[in-house]
Amino acid sequence: MTKSDSTNYQRKKTRQIKVGKVLVGGDAPISVQSMTITKTADVEGTLQQIYALAAAGCDIVRCTCNDAAAAEGLAKIVPRSPVPIIADIHHQYRMALGALEAGVHGLRLNPGNIRKPEHIKAVASEARDRGVSIRIGVNGGSLDSSLYEKHGGLTAQAMVESAQQELKYFEEVDFDLVKISVKASNVPLMVEAYRMLSEVTDFPLHLGVTEAGPLPGGLIKASAGIATLLLEGIGDTIRYSLTADPVEEARAGRQLLESLGLRERKNVDLIACPSCGRAEVDVIDIAQRAQAAFADKKLPLQIAVMGCVVNGPGEAREADLGIAAGNKRGHLFVKGRNVAVVPENEMVDALVEWATFIHEHGTDAALKRVDTTIAEREAAKDRNAALAEKGDDANHDQERIVEIRRTVSEK
Ligand code: SF4
Known about the structure:
This protein has about 400 residues and is α/β, with parallel strands linked by helices. It folds into 2 domains: about 1-260, Alpha-Beta Barrel (TIM Barrel), CATH 3.20.20; about 270-390, Sulfite Reductase Hemoprotein, domain 1 (2-Layer Sandwich). The chain has helices spanning about 45-55, 70-75, 95-100, 115-130, 145-150, 155-170, 185-200, 215-230, 245-260, 285-295, 310-315, 345-360, 365-370, 370-390, 395-410, and strands at about 1-5, 10, 15-20, 20-25, 30-35, 60-65, 85-90, 105-110, 135-140, 180-185, 205, 235-240, 270, 300-305, 320-325, 330-335, 335-345. Strands 10-9-8-7-6-5-12-11 form an 8-stranded parallel sheet. A 5-stranded mixed sheet has the order 13-14-15-16-17, with helices on both faces. Strands 1-2 form a two-stranded antiparallel sheet. Strand 8 (about 105-110), helix 4 and strand 9 (about 135-140) form a beta-alpha-beta unit. Helix 3 packs parallel to helix 4 and helix 10 (about 285-295) packs across helix 12. The relative contact order is 0.08. The structure holds iron/sulfur cluster.
């Protein structure tokens, strides 16, 4: 077990393998994977998607290799890809051999649909000779039917047993560049299967909730399963299986790891208050516009959008930068200290300008950039005006409490 600096979680120690230039397992950073949805034979289209995925934070990309044209496409894609490429193989072991010939950095085999031991061993032997890793990708929906019958249906034990059977074939040909997944679309089942698997193997584990579905439900399901396991120290690489543009998968994976403190922040972490009776702007609109403005900017900062200057700067004082509304103005603050006042319609532009400055010059330079006493005085003015107008009880909870007490005490 190794302990992360940034969280209290204990990561289970696994063996380390290589997928091209990316290390998986051991103390390697947890990697993000996704899969292209183009025809792999469409080399230019697939490469475009691979580049978009890499830009969104994807470390490893998988492409289907379902026919000879796809295998030939891989031969052209692999040398031009910015990230390692894994070929996804179902049913036809010859496609795995073709993908290896194309130079892929990894294979994914489904033990539920490539069943003949001699075929599995032929692929593993070839991968061994080339130093290419294989993921044993057990999938609840395509479990080997004999295991399904033996266990009376789809169970965690059946999925783990499927992976172990495949491992035995690999061992027979002395192949151990392996990672394993036991995905199911049912979150508790998937969590149980991975927990069980991590007890019986030290090969790196690839986490995912299969067929999680469209947004936003798919994101919730996948996050519930993946995050639960990661916080138990289980998992070395992850994939969100969403019915969406794969770029969403890469973004989600990256954001999950960043929010758990398991990967260094690369993008803006936008926090925003939920708004309430005290809000002096449409917080949802400004937060959405800020999210869009920062979407493609590689700024590893936490930025806050707060609805009022009464509580905003204090509640978000840990943020690198924030803005709070008051009296038709935006009060910018850096680490909780007011630095500038901007018109309401310039709030998002001001955030982008200050975020860029902080990224380039640091927080101290930002605080020295202006005379903060002016901004602090203006913020205090608007804070006092808001308090005078709405009082301490802007959400009227005290009034409600008085009414509740009166109602419940009525005979
Ligand atoms: S008090 Fe101000 S910062 Fe807090 S939720 Fe309400 S509007 Fe947002």
